[in-house]
Amino acid sequence: MEMFFYLVFGGLGALVPALELSKNNKDRITTSAAFTSFKNNYLVVYCLMMAGDWLQGPYVYYLYSTYGYGKGEIGQLFIAGFGSSMLFGTIVGSLADEQGRKRACVTYCITYILSCITKHSPQYKILMIGRVLGGIATSLLFSAFESWLVAEHNKRGFDQQWLSLTFSKAIFLGNGLIAIVAGLLGNLLVDTVALGPVAPFDAAACFLAIGMAIILSSWTENYGDSSESKDLLTQFKGAAVAIASDEKIALLGAIQSLFEGSMYTFVFLWTPALSPNDEEIPHGFIFATFMLASMLGSSLASRLMARPSSRVESYMQIVFVVSSVSLLLPIVTNFLVAPSNVKGGSISFSGCIQLLGFCTFEGCVGIFWPSIMKMRSQYIPEEARSTIMNFFRIPLNIFVCIVLYNVDAFPITVMFGMCSIFLFVASILQRRLLAIADKPSMLLTLVIF
């Protein structure tokens, strides 16, 4: 592996703990032994679930390419995943409430394991089935587990403040440390041990099976209230009323869709961008580097949000502009650096520049997640929170599907340019949100038909 990858990874690896250690010590929340046991049990399961998810991410595109599929065919496979998530994401929440959250979590494990098994087949139809299963699993991952945790936490009578402790630990471990370890493990299996690009999917299936065993043996079942079970039409009506009644909610949803749409498109584009001539790049190691950059961003976000003088609505304008510029680098390097026509070999000079830009973008992603959560908590009414959030995932997935469907029709630089424009538009919308944030909100009344 080239020294450049080690330098970038090592630099970020030094910055993350340095930033964390430089923070002031915060007061610790005193909890009970029962809660600690409950929290640790959930964190173990959540980390196993996220390990199963993170192991697959860096190698999906690479695996399909080794089977001989081109960018257009791979784009269709990705569309199947996002389309499946879009379709089932609107209904899995209510299904989990009706059929049981524990059962939904087990279904996630089974569905994702089956998706991993399909990766052994080079047949396009089998891979397509795997993407559909993966989309269903993704919807369950981001709904069923959180629903089970909240309901079980309240059922056991734990202090409501303690719930934030579980969430913060889950994000730090599952979305940070586990992602890095998964990236390094995947790189070990594929490059060092040379087990092939399907090995990370087999490892993911093992982690998911272990997690499912823990769920079956230690979790109890819980259900949603009957009052929460609403059909899709009712959910969309409530979301439409909220959006039409408050410009801040509409702006927030548009900002979220623009940024996440660009982010998911980037997930598809970074591999061909860094290896346009089939250069040898360590996918898992690069993925781990991206996760380090994201952790650095989240650490910076927590510091920014802790300062009374620093407003989320203000600094996010800068974040969106920086992220927009970072995704312009593939276009800039294409004009300023002579492209290489040599197949294979090591990463090019332009690839090194782009990698630094992509790390900057991932840092912005790390700032985005906790910041958008804080803004959602401020502007989206609690009684309509899940409805509105699900409503905005529909245009998000439609946007990604349209981009991927046309990915073979445009050069990769055009795709990055489009994402950069969307991010710049997000900064403009963020400025508008800041301008109206201090204005009195209209009285929002949701009428449930």
From TrEMBL:
Membrane topology: Multi-pass membrane protein
InterPro entries: MFS_trans_sf (IPR036259), MOT2/MFSD5 (IPR008509)
Molecular function GO terms recorded: molybdate ion transmembrane transporter activity
GO BP annotation list: monoatomic ion transport
Gene3D superfamilies hit by this protein: MFS general substrate transporter like domains
Entry keywords, A to Z: Cell membrane, Ion transport, Membrane, Transmembrane, Transmembrane helix, Transport
A GO cellular-component term linked to this record: plasma membrane
Membrane-spanning ranges: 42-64, 76-96, 128-149, 170-189, 201-220, 285-306, 318-338, 344-369, 390-406, 412-429
Domain of life, source organism: Eukaryota
Keyword Transmembrane: yes
Compartment(s): Cell membrane
Keyword Transmembrane: yes
Function: Mediates high-affinity intracellular uptake of the rare oligo-element molybdenum.
Full protein name: Molybdate-anion transporter
Annotated organism of origin: Tripterygium wilfordii
